[in-house]
């Protein structure tokens, strides 16, 4: 098993594309990556929750990461993938355009989030990685699902 | 959890089992079954609890268990007659013991007045049994025990010297203890040396080891038992203390303890000694009969012995024992499994079923002949997967016995507090239901039984005046009926006072004063929210909740409850519950291009609306006229946001539903696809609560379908609390 945090502070990240931008998440939070499947929509859910799918008997909510980060709606294609991540005790599927890379970076490679006032920067981006001229934003998944009080409203 | 906490948890789990066995045994004794088998089971239960509690330093528990055990020991040895009064004290002691165990587990304390009082009662019983002179006892034949039990109960023929148990301590006596371990003793990691050492700690003694049975090396069975010992011990602690050392190896060794008399012993003593020796010989001979060759016997008889031990009664029980009892005694071998593992298995099998259905559909679509090998193979696969699903579901199933076992105590307590005399009759306690259902059954059942005793049964005086037996009867019965479990709670009390019920309902504004209700409707008024037959909340059945809470908790389980009552003859509450919460009978419907499941329990009927029956009501709302009553007509698809505008009722189907508070509504859907059982999947585990959706399920095509929360959908529309329709944007 790969270890996300090596002794030298190195960690592995899974990079993926949402629209024109590249993002990544810590590989330790990724449970699996699977192809796109049509979801059953949930009533009264925020627009970025596209619905739920059947993950081998588990009901898995799917978040359109593009919408969640404040971009446009993802139009699912055959190349679209769902990255299944653990958020606390929950499992969530992130709908992204494509998985692009597995990166090994050290903390030195990680730059602080640029000081922007966007919701995306504040809620999700934990830092930015510069790699061969690419800019890859490391995102945290804690806030991808709506909070319970949002649901009950 | 650290190792100690784990051991502790196991201890309390085992305690629960022992307590259940204790109560069961005592109830059997109350019913007149005072055979040594039952008594011994009762004794063993208390003894094991005491032993375990000692290891955890639970002083209160140990002290009470000790007094309890002492009294039980007298019953066991035939010195105390287990008559009604004695059994009642024992039953109450079992209750206190249960409380002490619970308190110990939760690290709380129990009101000492409860334990002290009972401990005194137990002591009085014990002392009341003691005046019988010991010599008579020693000479008396052993208490009558069924012949087939003799092998099981080595302790029966051994005369316990009473003076030593309760007489002044410090009186020294000499004992000869013959101790012959069997192979099982070693297999259970017990050690003879330790036992003998413990024995010697009681006093002065000599140990003689008999090694004559040790075979020559080539014939030696390394796991056999070939040594035996004779210990002569001078001690003042009495025979009971000696027996106690060997309590935990009871059944795994041959043990005889005889009291040796002084050299100047009288003739009677010598006879006594002879009898003991004779008994020992007889025992030895029966042993020999079963096992002619000592060394080989150990190996040969082992499997048989083990079998005899695992279900303690199975082998020895007379063949014609009644079915109920042998079912209770011959508990099948069981294993303890983490519930999560079972649930995981259930999930996997559910997934297997779905895939099997998918595969079948694909193969059929491919246009294969029904009789082709593949189709036949698929049929067989289907049958197997269904069977597998049933079997896996059955793992979670448990007899309702575990809930029923708690009832006698409840009845005793309520009867005591209300001053009524109550007999509890239970039926069908081996009826099996899913574990979760059982867990959630306990509260409503408790409440209904309290209610039956407190409100249903009359006082003894009134019963006598009405020509009924003084003792009232509460009957609790469980049975399977068409894929559900039905639990009936009936009493032979006064029945519901319909006039009083109606008056209360009117006074609380629950029904109009001039309402004309059928008897049945009047009886069911007690389930209305805000109804309570007593003006003051009764300490017992009230507890601030009424029958409406009971009804709601049963409905939350997907069940229904109803009452029928006959004045002067009693009432019958009947609850019908699903066998499992893992699957649900549902009606598969389509609404706005989506597939939904409506729980069948909520559905009364379905109908096709006709244009003259549907009326507009206020701003955009509609009602439907069903047999002269106007019910809200709710378009499910627009309510859930699947479409912006409600559809034309004439194009859909109206499903009449009843919500948990008895209100009726009509849900409009686009069409009905059929009825079937669906596996319930949690939506909350990974997402959260969704208003209007109770849970999810996975359909045959592998897609997720939502299970409608009928109550919320109906209530939302009724009170216009404002669901924002059209907020949902489908991703397809």
UniProtKB/TrEMBL annotation, chain A:
InterPro entries: CheW, CheW-like_dom_sf, CheW-lke_dom. It comes from the Bacteria. Residues 10-150 form the CheW-like domain. Signal peptide: none annotated. Pfam families: CheW. SUPFAM superfamilies: CheW-like. This is Chemotaxis protein CheW.
């Amino acid at each position: 098993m790969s270890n996300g945090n090596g002794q030298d502070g190195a960690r592995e990240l899974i990079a993926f594309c949402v629209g024109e931008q590249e993002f990544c998440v810590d590989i330790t939070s990724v449970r699996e990556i699977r192809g796109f499947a049509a979801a059953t929509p949930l009533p009264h859910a925020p627009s970025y929750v596209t619905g739920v799918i059947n993950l081998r008997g588990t009901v898995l909510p799917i978040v359109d990461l593009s919408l969640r980060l404040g971009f446009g709606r993802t139009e699912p294609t055959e190349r679209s993938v769902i990255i299944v991540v653990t958020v606390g005790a929950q499992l969530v599927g992130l709908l992204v355009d494509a998985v692009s890379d597995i990166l090994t970076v050290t903390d030195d490679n990680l730059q602080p989030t640029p000081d922007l006032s966007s919701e995306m920067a504040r809620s999700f981006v934990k830092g930015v990685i510069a790699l061969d001229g690419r800019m890859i934003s490391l995102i945290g998944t804690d806030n991808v699902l709506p909070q319970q009080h949002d649901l009950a409203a | 959890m650290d190792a100690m906490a784990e051991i502790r948890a196991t201890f309390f789990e085992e305690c629960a089992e022992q307590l259940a066995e204790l109560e069961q045994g005592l109830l059997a004794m109350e019913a007149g079954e005072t055979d040594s088998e039952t008594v011994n089971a009762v004794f063993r239960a208390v003894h094991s609890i005491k032993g375990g509690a000692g290891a955890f330093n639970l002083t209160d528990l140990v002290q009470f268990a000790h007094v309890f055990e002492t009294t039980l020991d007298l019953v066991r040895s035939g010195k105390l007659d287990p008559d009604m009064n004695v059994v009642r004290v024992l039953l109450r002691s079992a209750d206190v013991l249960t409380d002490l165990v619970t308190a110990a587990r939760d690290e709380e304390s129990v009101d000492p007045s409860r334990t002290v009082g009972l401990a005194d009662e137990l002591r009085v019983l014990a002392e009341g049994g003691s005046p019988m002179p010991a010599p008579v006892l020693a000479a008396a034949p052993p208490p009558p025990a069924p012949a087939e039990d003799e092998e099981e109960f080595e302790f029966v023929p051994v005369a316990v010297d009473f003076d030593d148990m309760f007489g002044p301590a410090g009186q020294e006596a000499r004992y000869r203890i013959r101790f012959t371990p069997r192979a099982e003793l070693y297999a259970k990691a017990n050690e003879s040396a330790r036992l003998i050492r413990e024995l010697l700690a009681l006093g002065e003694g000599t140990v003689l080891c008999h090694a004559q049975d040790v075979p020559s090396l080539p014939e030696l069975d390394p796991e056999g038992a070939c040594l035996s010992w004779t210990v002569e011990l001078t001690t003042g602690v009495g025979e009971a203390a000696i027996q106690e050392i060997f309590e935990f190896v009871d059944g795994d060794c041959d043990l005889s303890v005889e009291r040796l008399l002084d050299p100047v012993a009288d003739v009677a003593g010598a006879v006594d000694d002879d009898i003991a020796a004779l008994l020992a010989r007889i025992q030895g001979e029966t042993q020999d009969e079963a096992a002619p060759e000592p060394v080989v016997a150990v190996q040969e008889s082992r499997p048989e012995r083990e079998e005899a031990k695992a279900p303690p009664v199975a082998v020895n029980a007379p063949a014609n024992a009644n079915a109920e009892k042998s079912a209770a005694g011959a508990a099948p071998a069981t294993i303890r499994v983490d519930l999560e593992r079972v649930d995981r298995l259930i999930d996997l099998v559910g997934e297997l079923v779905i895939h099997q259905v998918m595969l079948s559909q694909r193969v059929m679509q491919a246009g294969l002949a029904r009789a082709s090998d593949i189709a036949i193979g698929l049929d067989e696969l289907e049958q197997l997967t269904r069977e597998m699903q049933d079997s896996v579901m059955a793992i979670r199933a448990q007899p309702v016995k575990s809930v029923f076992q708690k009832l006698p105590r409840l009845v005793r307590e309520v009867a005591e507090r209300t001053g009524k005399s109550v007999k509890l009759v239970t039926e069908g306690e081996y009826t099996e239901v899913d574990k979760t259902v059982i867990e959630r059954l306990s509260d409503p059942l408790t409440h209904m039984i309290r209610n039956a005793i407190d409100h249903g049964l009359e006082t003894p005086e009134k019963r006598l005046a009405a020509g009924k037996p003084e003792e009232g009867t509460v009957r609790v019965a469980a049975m399977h009926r068409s894929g559900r479990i039905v639990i009936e709670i009936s009493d032979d009390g006064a029945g519901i006072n319909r006039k009083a019920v109606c008056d209360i309902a009117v006074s609380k504004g629950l029904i109009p004063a001039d309402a004309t209700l059928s008897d049945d409707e009047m009886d069911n008024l007690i389930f209305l929210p805000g109804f309570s037959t007593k003006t003051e909340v009764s300490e017992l059945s009230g507890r601030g909740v009424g029958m409406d809470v009971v009804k709601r908790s049963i409905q939350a389980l997907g069940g229904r409850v109803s009452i029928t009552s006959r004045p002067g003859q009693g009432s019958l509450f009947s609850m019908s519950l699903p066998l499992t919460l893992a699957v649900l009978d549902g009606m598969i419907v389509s609404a706005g291009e989506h597939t939904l499941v409506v729980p069948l329990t909520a559905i009364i009927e379905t109908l096709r609306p006709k244009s003259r029956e549907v009326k507009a009501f206020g701003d955009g709302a509609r009602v439907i006229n069903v047999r002269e009553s106007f019910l809200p007509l709710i378009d499910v698809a627009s309510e859930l946001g699947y479409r912006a505008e409600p559809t034309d009722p004439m194009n859909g189907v109206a499903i009449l539903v009843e919500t948990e508070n008895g209100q009726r509504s009509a849900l409009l859907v686009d069409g009905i696809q059929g009825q079937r059982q669906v596996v319930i999947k949690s939506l909350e585990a990974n997402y959260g609560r969704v208003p209007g959706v109770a849970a999810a399920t996975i359909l045959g095509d592998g897609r997720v379908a939502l299970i409608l929360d009928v109550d919320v959908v109906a209530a939302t529309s009724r009170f216009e609390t404002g669901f924002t329709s059209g907020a949902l944007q489908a991703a397809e």
